[in-house]
Design a protein that fits this description.
33% of the residues lie in helices and 18% in strands. It has a six-stranded mixed sheet, sandwiched between helices. InterPro entries: Glyc_kinase_flavodox-like_fold, Glycerate_kinase, Glycerate_kinase_RE-like, Glycerate_kinase_sf. Keywords: Kinase, Transferase.
C-alpha cells in the first residue's frame, strides 16, 4: 500500500517536511509495511523555498542583500535538486517582517534586494526561476528590482531615481538595454494568488498599501505615482501591462516582472505541484494525506490542501486533511475534493501549548486516523 503525504507548513510550528514526518510516524504505528512518499508542499507564500528544497533534495543559498529600508538584511533563495531551478520568496529580501512597525512606510521601501537575489541565482546558471511574491513591504512597482538587474529609471537629470514609491514621480525616461543578458535565457514563473491591477480602487496602493503603513493620503500619492511610472514604461514598450490581473501584486512587483521580464503569473500551488512533479506519484497510490495550519472557508481559494485534493481526484483517490485547527465553516472543502478533516488539537489547550507540541499532536492524530482506516481493511 502506497500513501502520499503532501502537507503545507503549519505556521509558527512545523515546516511542511516536519508535518510530513509527523504524519508518517503516526501512520507507521498502524501500517508499518506501507510505502510512504513524502512531498513537502507550499502555495507560493512563506515556506515555499524550504518546501521545494526539501521535496527535491535541493539547497538553501544565503545572501546579504539590500532590505526594504535600504539597509543590509540576511536573505536566501533555494536551488532545487535539478540544479536548473531557483526559488525565491521576495519577502526574504523585501518583506514586511524586515520593517519595524513604527517605520512602515511604502513611500520609501524598495524591492532592490529582490533583484539582488535574482542576480545571485543567475550565478548558478539556472534556466528557471520561481518567485513567490507574498508578504511584501513595498509599493514601488518593482522599480528597485529593475534597477538591481541593470535597468535605468532616470529622472530629468538623467540620474537613477531613488528608492520607494514616492520617487516614482521623478521618473522621466527608462533604459533597459543594460539589463543582465542572462535573463533572456531564463523562464520566470510568479506564484501569485491575487488578480489586482496595478492602479485604481482595486490596485496595489488602495488594497495593500494600508497594511504596509500607508495612510489614505499616502495611498493617493502612491496610486498617482504608480500610474505615472506605468505611463512611462508602457510608452517605452508600446504595450499596456497595468491592467493584467496580478500586476498589482506585491506593491506592483507583478507589473515589473510582467512588463520587463515577460514573467507568467500563476497560482502558487499549481507552480509547486508542477515543480515537485506531484502527479507522477499518484498512479499506484491508495491514499493521499494533506494539511496545513488552519483549514477554513478560505482554504478553497488556492491553498495547498485544495490543490493537492483536486489533482488527487483525477485518480479517484481518497484525500484526508490534517490541520492545526479547523473552523466552523471548513466543511465547504469537502466540495473540492477533501473527504475528511481532522484537527490535531487534542483538547482545550493554549495557543502556546498547541504550537509547542504540534509535532507530537500531529503524530497522535495521524495514528488515530490510521487506526480508524484499518477497520475498513485499507
Amino acid at each position: 500500500m502506497k500513501i502520499i503525504i503532501a502537507p503545507d507548513s503549519f505556521k509558527e510550528s512545523l515546516t511542511a517536511l516536519d508535518a510530513a514526518n509527523a504524519i508518517e510516524e503516526g501512520f507507521k504505528k498502524i501500517f508499518p509495511k506501507a510505502i510512504y512518499v513524502k512531498i513537502p508542499m507550499a502555495d507560493g507564500g512563506e515556506g515555499t523555498v524550504q518546501s521545494l528544497v526539501d521535496a527535491t533534495d535541493g539547497q538553501i543559498i544565503e545572501k546579504t542583500v539590500t532590505g526594504p529600508l535600504g539597509t543590509s538584511v540576511s536573505a536566501f533563495f533555494g536551488l532545487l535538486g535539478d540544479k536548473k531551478t531557483a526559488v525565491i520568496e521576495m519577502a526574504a529580501a523585501s518583506g514586511l517582517h524586515h520593517v519595524p512597525l513604527e517605520k512602515r512606510n511604502p513611500l520609501i521601501t524598495t524591492t532592490f534586494g529582490t533583484g539582488e537575489l535574482i542576480l545571485a541565482a543567475l550565478d548558478y546558471e539556472i534556466e528557471h526561476i520561481i518567485i513567490g511574491i507574498g508578504g511584501s513591504a513595498t509599493n514601488d512597482g518593482g522599480a528597485g528590482m529593475i534597477q538591481a538587474l541593470g535597468g535605468k529609471l532616470l529622472n530629468k537629470s538623467r540620474e537613477q531615481i531613488g528608492f520607494g514609491g514616492e520617487q516614482l514621480q521623478q521618473l522621466t525616461s527608462v533604459d533597459f538595454s543594460m539589463i543582465d543578458e542572462r535573463l533572456k535565457k531564463v523562464t520566470i514563473e510568479v506564484a501569485c494568488d491575487v488578480n489586482n491591477p496595478l492602479t485604481g480602487n482595486k490596485g496595489a496602493a488602495a488594497v495593500f498599501g494600508p497594511q504596509k503603513g500607508a495612510t489614505p493620503e499616502i495611498v493617493d500619492i502612491l496610486d498617482r505615482n504608480l500610474a505615472h511610472y506605468a505611463n512611462i514604461i508602457e510608452a517605452s514598450l508600446h504595450k499596456n501591462f497595468r491592467d493584467i490581473p496580478g500586476a498589482g501584486a506585491a506593491g506592483g512587483l507583478g507589473f515589473g516582472l510582467i512588463a520587463i521580464f515577460n514573467a507568467q503569473l500563476t497560482r502558487g500551488v499549481e507552480i509547486v505541484l508542477k515543480a515537485v512533479q506531484f502527479e507522477k506519484y499518484l498512479t499506484d497510490a491508495a491514499l493521499v494525506i494533506t494539511g496545513e495550519g488552519r483549514i477554513d472557508s478560505q482554504t478553497i481559494h488556492g491553498k495547498t490542501p485544495i490543490g493537492v485534493a483536486k489533482t488527487s481526484k483525477k485518480y479517484n483517490l481518497p484525500v484526508i486533511a490534517i490541520a492545526g485547527s479547523i473552523s466552523t465553516d471548513s466543511s465547504i472543502v469537502r466540495q473540492y475534493g477533501i473527504d475528511a478533516l481532522f484537527s490535531i488539537v487534542p483538547s482545550a489547550v493554549s495557543l502556546e501549548n498547541a504550537l509547542e507540541n504540534a509535532y507530537e499532536y500531529t503524530v497522535l492524530t495521524a495514528e488515530n486516523v490510521a487506526a480508524f482506516l484499518k477497520q475498513f481493511s485499507m
